[in-house]
Amino acid sequence: LKGKAKNNFVLDEESQELLLRALIDGAPDRIFAKDRNFRYIFVNQSFAAYLGKNVEEIIGKDDSELGFSAELVFGDRNGLFRGIREEDRAVLAGEIVRNPYQAILFEGGKQHIFDTQKQPLCDAEGNIFAVLGFSREISQLQATEEARNQSQAKLQKITASVPGTVYQIDLYPDGSMAFSFVSAGCRELYEIEPEAAQEDFNVIVDMIHPEDRDDFLNSVTLSAENLQPWRWEGRIVTPSGKLKWVQGASQPELQASGEIVYYGLFTDISARKQAELKLQLYQQIFLKSNDAIAILDPQGYYLETNQAHTALLGYCASKLWGKTPANLMGEQAFASLMQSLAETGSYRGEKTFIKALQKGTVEVELSAFAVLNDAGNVVCYVSINRDITERKRAEEKLLLYREIFLNSNDAIVIIDADGFFLEQNPAHQTLLEYTDAELEAEASPLVAGECFSVIAKSLAKTG
Questions:
Q1: 82 contacts 67 by C-beta, under 8 angstroms
Q2: Cα 270 to Cα 52: distance, rounded to the nearest angstrom
C-alpha cells in the first residue's frame, strides 16, 4: 500500500499481485476442496506439486483417479481406520474431521506423514456443498535427514525441503556445467529420471523454451561473476509436450578448486503465472465493466474507479481522491452503507440516488462488499453502481399505460394467440357482463360469436 493522501491508500499493481498470489501459491500447507461427488474442485500449488501434477490435471478427479491406493481411499477391511472417502462423507454430513497422523505412500515408495483437517464448506444459504481440507507435512525433518544421508551431506546446503527438484550444479572454470545431484522431483517436474540429468546437463537446458534459453544461460554466468544469489523464471517444454513455468533459485559458492557450486531447487510456478494472468483479466473486467465500480479504502475513501464510474457520475478518479461517496449519495446513505459493510461485509440498496456532475441526480442499484486478507482484516471495499434510471422510467410508463387500460371508456380485452382470455378492463366487463372467471372458462369464439373468425383472419393477415 502506498500513501496518497490523508486517510487514503492506493493498492499498487505489485500489492494486488501479491494478494492474489498469496491466496493461491503462498500457503505451505496442502489446501484442497472436493464437491459432493468427492471430486477435486480446488487445490493449491503445494498439493499439486506433491502429486507431481499441474492443478488442471487434478481438478475434476477423485482420489482413486489420482492414484491413491484403494485402502487409503476406502479404508482398512478390518476396520482399523476409515479411509478418505468415509471421512469426506462425514464432513458432508456436517462433521469437522481431523487425522493427525495420515501416512500416504507416494509413487516410488516414499511415505509422507500429514496432519489433515477437513471441514464443511457452505453456500450463502448454509447448504454444505464441498469439503475443505488443510494438510500439513509433519515428517519434514525426518525426510530431510534421510535425504541428507543418501546424498552424503550434499543436501546440508539446502535450508528447506520443498516441493520441486533439489539440485547441485557445478560450474567449471572452462564454462561447462553439470548436475552432480538431482532429486527425485525431477521426474515430476521434468518428466525424466534424475540420472538422465546427471549424465547430460543439456537434457535440462534443451527443455527450456527457445525464447528463454539465452536468458537462463546469461543469468547463470552473471551470478557466477559476482557470486550473488541466482534466481530465474522461464518456460520449459517437457517430453510429453506440456508447457510449464519454472523458477530456479540457488546460492553460488566458490570452491578452492575454482569451480562454482550452486545448491538450490527448481519449482513449478505455472499456477502462479496463471494467477498473474487472471489478475490481468480481472483488471480488464474492472476497467471495461458497464457497471460503475469504485474501490474504497477501509475508511471509505476513494482509491480507484473504472471508466463506467467516470461516465456515469462525471468525476475522474483523481477528482475523487481524498473524498468519500458521502459527497455524492449523502451523509445518511453513506453512513448506512459503511455500517452494513462493517457488520455484515456486504450491502445492497435497491434504490439509491447519487448526484452526478452533469446528469444531475441519477438513480442506481448499489451493491458493495468487503475484501479481506488472510487475517480477516478489511483490505478495501468494492462498490458497484448500476444505472437504473431508464428502467425506472420504463416501469413508470408501464404503470401509466396500465392506468389508461383500466380507466378507458372503451371496452378492451386481451386474448392470447389461441383466442383464450387473458385480461379485460372494467369497461369491457360492464359492456358484456362477463366476469373474469366466466371469460376464462369460455373461448373467445363463444363470446364474440360468428364475428370472431373474421377478426381472427384479419389479425393473422395484417396484425
A1: no
A2: 13
Which of 15-29, 383-397, 422-436 is least confident?
15-29
- Residue 324 makes CB contacts below 8 A (sequence gap 6+) with 296, 299, 300, 301, 302, 334
Nearest of 317, 163, 184, 331 to residue 247 by alpha carbon: 163
> 155 pLDDT band (50/70/90 cuts)?
very low
Domains detected in the chain: 25-138 (3.30.450.20), 142-273 (3.30.450.20), 290-391 (3.30.450.20), 408-462 (3.30.450.20)
- Residue 308 to residue 319: CA distance in whole angstroms: 15
Cell of 205: 537446458
Whether residue 49 is predicted with pLDDT greater than 90 in this model: the reply is no
Distance between CA atoms of residues 50 and 160, nearest Å = 15
pLDDT of 109 > 80? The answer is no
Sequential DSSP letters for 33-69: EEETTS-EEEE-HHHHHHHTS-HHHHTT--TTTTT--
Cell 456443498 sits at which residue? 129
CA distance 183 to 334: 58
Q: What pTM was computed for the model?
A: 0.40
Sign of the dihedral defined by the CA atoms of residues 394, 400, 403, 405, in that order:
negative
Residues 25, 45 contacting (CB under 8 angstroms): yes
